[in-house]
Amino acid sequence: MGLYSDLREKLISDYAKLSPQMQKAARYILDHPNEVALRSMRALAAAAGVPPSTITRLMNAIGVETWQEFRDHYQTRLLDQPTSYAQRARETQSTEHDANRDEHLLESIARTEIDNIGAAFSPELVAGMIQACGAIESARNVYIVGRGAAYPAAYQFAYAYRLFRDNGVLVDGHSGAFGDELRGIGRRDLMIAVGAKPYIRDTVRAVDFARAQHCPVIAISDSDVSPIALDAMTKLVVRDTSQSFFQSFTAALSVMQALVALLVARGGHKALQRIAAAEEQLAAFDTYFED
Fold first, then answer.
1. Measured between alpha carbons, how far is 213 from 21 in angstroms, rounded to an integer?
2. Residue 121: is its pLDDT beyond 80?
3. Residues 96-125: what's their mean pLDDT?
4. Per-residue model confidence as pLDDT tens digits over 208-235
5. Among 58, 67, 235, 257, which residue has the fewest nearby CB atoms (within 10 Å)?
6. Which PROSITE patterns match (predicted)?
C-alpha cells in the first residue's frame, strides 16, 4: 500500500502542473484505481478518454518507467482490499427479462449505498474526520456551503451544528445574498464545502474566495483533485456511485452526520447545555407536532 500511496500523492501534488490531457488521465486514475489494476494501458486510456501516449507521458512525469511497474502497485493495493459490495451488486443485477427485476434492482441499490458508506469510514477518512473536528472546534466562524444536490448534506450539518454552537454560517444565497454571507471571512475562520461532479459554480466560487482570504477549507467531495478539494486543508473523498441516473450523496451526508456526532461527543457539558436550551426554544415556538 505504501508505494501505491506514494503514486497517489504524487498525482495529486503534481496535478496543477500537468497538461489538460494528463490531468484528465490523472483524474480518472485517482477516481478509479481498481481500473488500473484490471485493465490494459490501452483500455484504461480509452476509459479515461485520452490516447495511450498520454498515460505514458503521465507515468514519466511522476517517475514511473513502465506500465507493468505502474500497474503492479495498483494490483497489490487491490489484493489488500476486502470484497466490494459494489462488485456483489453488479453480480446481482438482473436482465430486463428477469421476473424479479425490480427486487434485484433495489437489492443492487442497497448494496451500492452500503459500499459507499463503508468506504467513507475507512481508516484514512476516519483520521481525516478527527482532524476536521479539531479545526472546526478552533475556528472563529464555520461557513458551510453545498449547492444543488449537495445542499441537503450542507443544510443538515448546519442545522444540527447550530443546536450546540453559535458560530455556524450556512452559505445558501437566499434573496441573492450569496456573496454577502461570505463577508468578513478570513484566516481565523473555516469553510466546509460539499460537492461532486458536475460541480456547482457557486460552490467553487465560494471555495476560491475563501482560499483568497486565507481561510482553510474542509472539502467533502468525490475526488482528490476536484475544484473544491485540490488545495483543501482536509479532504474527505467519498463515493457517489449510484445505480440510478443521478449520483448518490448518501456517503457525503453520512460524513456530515458523523462530524456532528463527533463534535457533540467532544463538546462535553457545554454542548449538552446548549442543546437543551435549543430544545426549550423549539418547544416555546411549538415547533413539533405531537400526537
1. 31
2. yes
3. 85
4. 999 999 999 999 999 999 999 989 999 9
5. 257
6. HTH_RPIR, SIS
- Angle, alpha carbons 210-22-10 (nearest 5°): 65
DSSP state of 132: H
Phi, psi of 242 (to 5 degrees): -145, 145
The residue type found at 206 is A
Q: Kindly provide the residue ranges of all beta strands, DSSP E only, lying in the chain, ordered along the sequence.
A: 142-145, 168-170, 190-195, 217-221, 234-237
Res 65: pLDDT? 87
Sequence-distant (≥ 6) Cβ neighbours of residue 38 within 8 angstroms: 78
Q: Across the chain, which distance is largest between two alpha carbons, in Å?
A: 69
**Cα torsion through 86, 90, 92, 97, rounded to 10:** 150
What's the pTM? 0.77
- Separation between Cα atoms, residue 92 and residue 114, nearest integer Å: 15
Q: How far apart are CA 231 and CA 149, in angstroms?
A: 22
Got the DSSP string for 190-202?
A: EEEEEE-SSPPHH
How many other C-beta atoms lie within 10 A of the C-beta of residue 213?
Answer: 14
> Rounded distance, CA 263 to CA 133, Å?
6
pLDDT (tens digit, 9 = 90+) per residue, 147-171? 999 999 999 999 999 999 999 999 9
Burial state string for 19-40 with b = 16 or more CB within 10 A and e = fewer than 16:
eebbbbbbbbbbbebeebbebe
CA–CA separation, 78 and 43 (whole Å): 18
